[in-house]
Design a protein that fits this description.
Chain lengths: 214, 719
């Protein structure tokens, strides 16, 4: 029994080892992520999204390229003059595809909630009622899947802030969550190296929320 | 495996270095030859590729060799693939034309006769939330639709009246399944409501004519309500109202959800407090139990169950013209049950199957002084449909339906009864064909068979829509519609056959960014309407001898943009209706079809008060009635109907709503018609009594509290 666990562990290590050792994939991802972090206009955003999708098409066992493609689409919809619903719907498709590859992934669940938040923002008056609990639900699910995920916590803080502004009930809860988010970002930073390709975005959003706190 | 993959990769990379690269370039345009920037071009199975630039041009290098597949992908367009031979040279790819995909987002929608209230369609006239926040609606689904074009407010009835048609001409469906006795049983001049709670539905589709071949047995209109999908969280909803209270509990996870609710209403305390025009012996009261459940099946399947049972009653004295006493004691007791279940499954190859069964049971016990009348109605509806999308341009929906219907009238004191049993069967098919994303043609055919009437019939329907500009659509609809007469006529004369109607509708819709303008022109003919001798209470010699028509136009303007935090809509409908029906020997303007109908609804949100204020105003030019003191039929008209309703919704906390609403704030004494004595008095005059409102105003106060772990939950829907 012990032996088989050991073998299993070794195989597992070997797989992760190999996975981490796909230098072409890693390099391609690093290049795209770098481009993603400095998108000046819609055209570049489109190129970055396309780049991630090319990687996703070639490496259909990886969730990350789909994740980033969806994330870039969401950011484009927020930043640029585009058909927002179309961009969010496309992002949602990629998120769902990513979730099939990697189920119970806190990052994907949080991004899913972010997409819903985006769709909500297109028409808050009529979508709010249905979508705001949906987004909340996804963020709390993401937090449960990984309590160390700073993005899940920050996005939840964002929703809480919106609620408190609407009801004039004071931002204490949102602030607390944003502070927790920032701490988690600090923790995350310790792990980040040049080769790190997992999601790292969101720290500025947490700081933004904290501006509403005294 | 991984290593092998890696190895192959490196190997190819190696070869690339050794033998150099191929350079691939080309240009991409749309169908019209306009360059498409941002298209994703890549070689299948590799990272090699590029995005097209502003001129639609692209260029990239690859180290791959031999036969490769070049893939073109672009959001909103159909993808394309191309075989190329990579030979380490410059490869000029033929110019590629991508075809725009037709999706729900960009395709034209048929708006003739159709009004969508959903979040899905873009041709939306009302949002689901409007149903609960329209002040005059008082939370009733149908109340909100009475502010829409093509409808008339008949204030003493409460049901939907569409374009000169009577209330029976509106067919009501839940998830495609017919609802028998959808309105609560009531006494004459006491307005009724739909039985179903507005919070069950995620969307509604309301048609004022020319509607889909999927629906039948409704001469004027189809109202299709779509129930919600899976609930997303556990919660309890408590409501305390000036007229009753209720509790609803929802249990949900990702696979299934169930909501159970119970309500009790009694207007007695309210009516004791606020003076009524009517002489109530026992105020309206009712209880209901409701269950809604959803279960996901496999990947794309959903089973829904909706069950409801309720019971209620009322008792009032109805004065008679020319008499001083309290009049006739009208006593009504009603029990009603509805159960339906349906299953929708999306299959491979773009097939969607739907099957459902619905059962309605209604029992009325009516007492008029010592006379007791019982009416029992049962309806079973079984339906199956198959939908196939052949491509993004062609789809078909085909189905089969069976209705089993029984109706019975009893006079228990006299030991008399009569009944009918009916079986109807239908087949329908409907085809949607997009010539391009701006032009759609929909053709449908519906065939029916009634056993009791021993009749077969066929209803062809056609509609088309053309997008004339980015925001404007012109649509046209036409069709034939059949409807069997109402039960209380058929039970007397079994041989009565279908009435029928032809619709012609021309519509222009402009919808852009918070502004909607809609105008519609229509003509509707009626034939084989039921006529009889004598009075409606005791019809004799019933035949299909009637006919008539209705023509007119309506205008609708909605604006959610121009005034900050304000949403308003204005509706005007003109209906010129004449029909020979019931006891009339000539064509007359029916009493339920006022010519000029106007309404305005406005809602304003004040953020720092956490409040939404609403106002709605309805106006029409009065209802026709027959005054026997003068010659002719339907020779008189009441004064104009006017009603202003106001509401205030206050959200002090995310999970608490306080809602206050008042109808007819100005207390206008609206008259809907007059009842006359059957015989003239000594002076030779028929004495009359006006049919007025139950009370000058109706005041509603409700407190809605949601109990959930998720503090943002509220039951806005229960307003």
């Amino acid at each position: 029994m012990k032996k088989s666990i050991l073998t299993f562990a070794l195989i597992f290590m070997w797989i992760t080892f190999v996975k981490a050792m796909d230098p072409v994939y890693e390099a391609a991802m690093q290049k795209q992520i770098q481009a993603m972090n400095s998108i000046p206009n819609l055209e570049t955003a489109q190129q970055v999204t396309n780049g991630f999708i090319r990687i996703a098409e070639a490496k259909n066992e990886e969730w990350l390229p789909l994740y980033y493609a969806a994330y870039t689409n969401v950011m484009s919809a927020f930043r640029f003059e585009v058909n927002k619903d179309q961009y969010f719907d496309q992002a949602l498709q990629w998120v769902n595809k990513a979730a099939e590859i990697s189920p119970d992934n806190s990052e994907i669940t949080a991004l899913h909630g972010f997409v819903i938040m985006g769709k909500l923002s297109v028409d808050p008056a009529s979508r709010g009622q249905e979508m705001s609990p949906m987004a909340m639900q996804l963020f709390s699910k993401a937090i449960n899947q990984d309590r160390e995920n700073p993005r899940a916590v920050t996005l939840m803080a964002q929703m809480e802030l919106g609620m408190s502004q609407f009801f004039g009930s004071g931002p204490e809860k949102a602030c607390g969550m944003a502070r927790l988010g920032l701490e988690l970002f600090k923790k995350e930073k310790m792990k980040i190296t040049d080769e790190y390709i997992l999601p790292t975005w969101g720290e500025r959003d947490a700081e933004g929320i904290l501006k509403n706190c005294n | 495996m991984k290593t092998l993959y890696l190895f192959t990769y490196l190997f190819f990379l190696q070869i690339g270095f050794l033998f150099g690269q191929s350079q691939i370039s080309g240009i991409i345009t749309d169908e019209k030859g306009i360059p498409l920037p941002g298209v994703n071009i890549f070689i299948r199975g590799s990272f090699d590729g590029a995005s097209s630039d502003i001129e639609g041009k692209y260029v990239f290098e690859t180290t791959l060799e031999g036969e490769q597949t070049l893939v073109f992908q672009f959001l909103g367009f159909k993808g394309k693939e191309l075989s190329i031979n990579c030979n380490q040279q410059k490869i000029q790819v033929e110019s590629i034309h991508l075809i725009e995909a037709i999706t729900e987002m960009n395709a034209v929608t048929i708006s003739a006769g159709a009004m969508d209230a959903s979040d899905e369609s873009k041709a939306v006239i009302l949002k689901p939330i409007d149903i609960v926040t329209t002040p005059s609606a008082m939370g009733d689904v149908v109340g909100a639709f009475q502010t829409l074009p093509g409808t008339s407010t008949v204030g003493n009835d409460g049901r939907l009246f569409v374009r000169g048609g009577d209330a029976s001409e509106v067919g009501i469906y839940v998830d495609g399944m017919r609802v028998g006795n959808a309105y609560g049983t009531t006494a004459a001049n006491v307005p009724t409501r739909t039985r179903f709670n507005a919070n069950l539905f995620k969307g509604t589709f309301f048609s004022t004519g020319g509607y889909s071949a999927e629906y039948g047995q409704a001469l004027s209109s189809a109202l299709a309500l779509k129930t919600k999908d899976l609930a997303i969280r556990n919660q309890g909803d408590l409501s305390i109202m000036s007229v009753g209270g209720g509790y609803s509990h929802t249990l949900a996870n990702e696979k299934h959800s169930i909501t159970l609710s119970a309500n009790y209403f009694d207007l007695q305390p309210y009516q004791n407090l606020i003076k009524q025009n009517f002489d109530w012996e026992r105020s309206p009261h009712s209880w209901d139990l409701e269950l809604a459940a959803q279960q996901k099946i496999k990947k794309n399947g959903l089973v829904k169950v909706l069950a409801r049972t309720e019971s209620g009653g009322m008792s009032l004295w109805r004065p008679e013209p020319g008499k001083e006493e309290r009049g006739i004691l009208t006593d009504i007791n009603n029990s009603y049950s509805y159960v339906q279940t349906n299953y929708r499954q999306a299959l491979k190859n773009n097939w969607t199957l739907f099957s459902g069964i619905a059962l309605s049971h209604n029992k009325d016990e009516i007492g008029l002084d010592s006379l007791q009348i019982h009416r029992i109605s049962n309806l079973t509806h079984i339906k199956s449909t198959a939908t196939k999308d052949f491509s993004d341009r062609l789809s078909a929906n085909t189905g089969i339906e069976v209705y089993l219907h029984g109706y019975k009238e009893l006079l228990p004191n006299k030991n008399l009864s009569r009944k009918i049993d009916e079986t109807e069967a239908y087949l329908f098919t409907e085809w949607d064909w997009y010539l391009n994303k701006d032009f759609i043609v929909r053709g449908g055919l519906r065939g029916g068979r009634s056993q009791l009437s021993d009749q077969y019939w066929l209803d062809p329907r056609i509609s088309l829509a053309y997008k004339v500009s980015e925001s404007g659509t012109i649509s046209f609809a036409s069709g034939k519609f059949h409807q069997l007469p109402v039960d209380n006529y058929r039970v007397i004369e079994n041989s009565l056959q279908n009435s029928n109607s032809n619709h012609l509708i021309l519509n222009y819709l402009y919808a852009n960014n918070g502004i909607t303008f809609r105008s519609e022109l229509f003509y509707k003919s009626y034939d084989r309407l039921v006529t009889f001798e004598g009075y409606p209470q005791d019809p004799q010699q019933l035949t299909n001898g009637g006919y008539g028509n209705a023509k007119g136009f309506d205008l609708f303007y909605r604006d959610r943009k121009s005034i900050k935090n304000t949403d308003f809509w204005v509706t005007y409908s003109f209906v010129d209706s004449e029909r020979k029906f019931d006891q009339y020997s000539n064509q007359v303007q029916p009493n339920f079809a006022p010519k000029h109908n106007f309404s305005i609804v406005a809602k304003h949100f004040i953020t720092n008060l956490n409040s939404q204020f609403g106002a709605s105003f309805s106006l029409n030019d009065g209802y026709t009635y027959a005054n026997p003191n003068f010659p002719g039929e339907m020779n008189s008209k009441t004064e104009s109907y006017q009603s202003l309703s106001l509401s205030w919704s206050y959200l002090p906390k995310p999970n608490l709503i306080i809602h206050l609403a008042c109808s007819n704030v100005l207390g206008r004494e609206n008259i809907f018609g007059y009842t006359y004595t059957q015989n003239p008095n000594e002076m030779g005059v028929f004495e009359s009594l006006p049919s007025g409102q139950v009370a000058p105003r109706f005041l509603f106060l409700g407190i809605f509290l949601t109990i959930s772990k998720d503090k943002t939950a509220n039951n806005l829907n229960n307003l």
